[in-house]
Amino acid sequence: MLKQITVIGVIGVVILVIIALSFSNSIEENVEETDFIIKGDVIMPTKVSRPGCDENDRCYIPSLIVIEKGKQVTWINEDSAFHTITSGFYDAPTDLFDSGHLDPFESYTLTFDEKGTYDYFCTLHPWMKGQVIVE
Question: What are the two backbone dihedrals, phi and then psi, of residue 61, each rounded to the nearest 5 degrees?
């Protein structure tokens, strides 16, 4: 009887070790996948699809970005709603650029080849406004 309990105990420990090793391998694999996350210059954080983010200037973070001519800006939608990056203002779009609808966690990158001030907004949420200054 004692031999049976010992054998069952050893088998149980071996099974637990195998399970633990399989979990540690899957955790390492998930860590490696995070290396592919796109880093954005401008973030659309959660809950900006609701009015009010404009009151504390947090619809696009940062809402004003200054870059050098020829550089890129990448916007990332971290919200659960669709958003756009469209040039101009809600009542006067300029047709210089338009990301189209960005799904949650989708990004949009644009190269600015000319100096100037570029206002932009979200066509779906008119209170969301930002600006790129190219020097």
Answer: -120, 115
DSSP 72: E
Question: Quick one: pLDDT band at residue 12, thresholds 50, 70, 90?
Answer: confident
User: For the whole model, what pTM was predicted?
Assistant: 0.72
Q: Which residue has the tokens 């000319």?
A: 114
Average pLDDT of the residues in 7-24: 72
DSSP 15-81: HHHHHHHHHHHHHHHHHHHGGGPPPPSEEE-TTTTSTTGGGGT-SSBSSEEEE-TT-EEEEEE-SSS
CA distance 94 to 84: 14
- Cβ proximity of 96 and 131 under 8 Å: no
Say if residue 104 is preceded by a cis peptide, omega within 30 of 0.
no
| pLDDT tens-place string over residues 75-86 | 999 999 999 999
CB proximity list for 47: less than 8 A, separation 6 or greater: 53, 79
- Distances from the Cα of 17 to the Cαs of 10, 14, 120, 131, in angstroms? 11, 5, 55, 55
